[in-house]
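Input (structure):
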């Protein structure tokens, strides 16, 4: 169980076709259950481990339920802009609940 006041670390993954965390741009927005933005983490603020995986942290998290909104742009040759934006919304964690 996560407790209020903890620092939390999350690994970023993506299963979108034709999207690469390494080469394509992305950001993660974390919202609480009321839709309030708690954090916005662009790719350049994530850190990588020795195996190339991406991570982000949230510090001193308050009690509540949190969702993560992943937004990235990847190549799409069938689209006029040549880049398609993908968005994914997932439950992230419960803190103190």
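Output (sequence):
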């Amino acid at each position: 169980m996560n407790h209020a006041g903890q620092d939390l670390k999350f690994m970023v993954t993506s299963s979108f076709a034709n999207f690469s965390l390494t080469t394509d741009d992305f950001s993660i927005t974390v919202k609480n259950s009321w839709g309030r933005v708690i954090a916005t983490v662009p790719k350049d603020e994530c850190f990588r481990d020795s195996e190339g995986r991406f991570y982000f942290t949230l510090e001193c998290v308050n009690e509540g339920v949190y969702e993560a909104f992943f937004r990235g742009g990847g190549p799409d040759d069938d689209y006029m802009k040549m880049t398609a934006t993908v968005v994914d919304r997932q439950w992230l964690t419960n803190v103190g609940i």
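Notes: The chain is about 0% helix and 55% strand. The chain has a mean pLDDT of 89.
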